[in-house]
Every structure is written in C-alpha cells, then in structure tokens.
Amino acid sequence: MMIDPKRLVKVPGFTRLSDNEIAELVKRDTNEDPSLFDGLPLRPLIFVDALAPCAPNARWRWTEACHLYTWPGWLEDLHRLAGRIGLKRAWFQNKADSLPHYDLNPSRRAAAIRLGAVESNRRHVVNSIAMWRHSRLKRVV
C-alpha cells in the first residue's frame, strides 16, 4: 500500500495518517508481528532504530547509539516510556527540522524494547521525519 499524502487526517494540533495507513507502515517498516494489527495499532507507537557507531565524548561515553522516537500525536507517550527507562526530560531533542527523539545507549535500547518500543529500519525513520515536517507545516499555516 502506497501512502497517499492527500489522505492525511486533520486532527487539532497535529496531522496523522489514517489508522489503516499507520498499521500498514508499521507492518512494512518494522519487525513487529503483522498478526498484532487488525487495521489498528493496539498501543501508542514508540520506536527505536538500529544501533549505529558513534564517537564517545565528554557527555556520551558509548560507542553505539540509536534513537527513541514516535509520530506526531504521541509525544506524551514517548516521554512516559523515556522516563520508565531512566531518561531525563531535559535530554529530549526537538529541533525544528529534525525528528523529535531521545538518544539511547545499547542497554537503554534493550529496556525500551522490553517495555514495548517497536524496532524500526532506516526507511521508517525517514518516513517519520517527513511526517513531523508535514505536521509542523500544517500548524504554521
């Protein structure tokens, strides 16, 4: 199923895809079991991408990192899960032209997955960035 931007549903405060389109994207772009979806997500969708190499510095001692993120409309659920795995709200990154996210080290990534975060691939991250950009444009107009 190809996502048609004209079918975005207008919701006060943000724009999101229809429930069927969300379920289709999750089935296509994650390792989530498709049988969990009957056209609708069963829980808020919080995602983690793959671990990638990074350079340690004074504020980050790990050699791998990934992102904990969500789609427009589920930021409070993202913050709630982040708090449950020991992340501070001050660590949340929300730049205007980027994907709102928390950085995760390998152990926090594993904890997020245990608590229900869905593993995603690079294409899903790119689609999610596009959704956030579209959402922000809709609020400006």
Radius of gyration computed on alpha carbons: 15 Å
Largest sheet: 5 strands, mixed
Work out the helicity level. 25-40%
Shape: globular
Counted by DSSP, the helix tally is 4
Mean pLDDT: 76
Number of strands: 7
The rounded distance between the terminal residues' Cα atoms is 29 Å
Structural class estimated from helices and strands: alpha+beta
Strand content: 15-25%
Outline the low-pLDDT stretches. Answer: 1-16, 36-42
N-to-C series of helices and strands = EEHEEEHEHEH
Please, could you describe this protein's structure?
With 141 residues, the chain is α+β, with helices and mostly antiparallel strands. The chain has a domain at 44-140. 35% of the residues lie in helices and 17% in strands. The protein contains four helices and seven strands. The chain has helices spanning 19-29, 75-84, 106-114, 122-140; strands spanning 9-11, 14-16, 46-48, 52-53, 64-70, 101-104, 118-119. The strands form two sheets. Strands 3, 4, 5, 6 and 7 form a five-stranded mixed sheet that branches. Strand 1 and strand 2 (14-16) form a beta hairpin. The longest helix is centred in the C-terminal third of the chain and has 19 residues, at 122-140.
